Amino acid sequence: MSNCIIMYTNASSGIVLTLATLGLYTSHIYPVFVFGTLAYLIIVFCNLLVLAAIVVSKKLHKPMYILLLNLPISDTVGATAFFPQLLSSIVTENRLISHPACVTQAFLIHIYGTANLMILSAMTYDRYIAICCPLRYNVTMSPNTLIKIIIAIWLINFSLMVTLFLLLVRLKMCRTNVVDLYCNNPSLLKLVCEDTTVNNLYGIAGICLLQGGSLFIIIYTYAQILRTCVMTNLSHARKKAMQTCGTHLVVFLILQINTVGTLIAHRIESASPYIRRALGVSILIFPPLLDPIIYGLKTAELKQSIVMFLKRNPCSTKF
């Protein structure tokens, strides 16, 4: 059937792809569907709650929280790119997906992953300035600077991902079986029957820039933060800033470890496909689920604002 599809047309809109099987028994279909639906609703609800609390509460209109505002947006995009298609395929027991839909899903998922890395890196810089250079904080993290940082995050993100997928869609495919549970650039490249050297070089450069750059920022800023903590007595303001650092580091490491593990697994032929799929799915479940919970519980000001928001809007707790 797949050969007929490729012979019939080279247009991407006419290609139907098959995602990796979920391996569910018939008796498990509806329990898994219910669990997946609840997980998606919880993710969307928690992220929108954090988003609304920051927007409504004037005391949260600070650089750290304005940067944090972008995280639930990105998490919701990633979860929405993954869960609806997955839940639909569970109910219909159909793992087919059109090529345009597959590319769209992959694009949104990569947008989500890249945005999270860049947002967390920007938040790390904000904590570095707050703790190491408190007297310059208001000047360095001025509203104009903040706007520039946010615009740069999304502009660079879209530019990199648009280029990545333009390089992908120019290539002809000779296979239709996607090796992962959802569409992504590495799994789509494995369907191509042309030379992918340019794509691979661009992908490696992107990994070095995004993963390596964000890791460098984290290591450098936290080294400076620890140095400052050791050399000086922390003031009240610095203690409050330090409270968010541990939380921030946990969130960053969850995303970084899962992402690096998945990318490495894709490039090692002998890697277990089950481990690769598990790591790939965890990127789309745990950060969107844990980010609002961790920040909401561990960041005192945000926690208070969420509680106040829920008290003012009791209907919002019903979903």
UniProtKB/TrEMBL annotation:
Listed GO MF terms? G protein-coupled receptor activity; odorant binding; olfactory receptor activity
Gene3D superfamilies xref list: Rhodopsin 7-helix transmembrane proteins
Endoplasmic reticulum keyword on record:
no
Compartments reported by the entry: Cell membrane
Q: Transmembrane ranges?
A: 7-26, 32-55, 67-87, 107-125, 146-169, 201-223, 244-266, 278-297
Q: Where is the G-protein coupled receptors family 1 profile domain?
A: 46-295
Protein name as catalogued: Olfactory receptor
